[in-house]
Amino acid sequence: MTFCEQAWQRNLPLFNATVALPFNQALANGSLARDAFQHYMIQDAHYLVAFGRALAIAGGKADDAEGVVQFSQAAQEAVVTERLLHDSFMRAYDVTPEIFQRTPLSPACHHYCHFLQSTAWSRPYAVALAALLPCFWIYAEVGVELQKRSVPGNPYQGWIDTYGGEEFHAHVRAVRETVDAVAAQADAKTVAEMHQAYTDAARLEWMFWDSAYHMAVWPC
Question: Which GO molecular function entries does the Swiss-Prot or TrEMBL record give (predicted)?
Answer without folding.
Answer: thiaminase activity
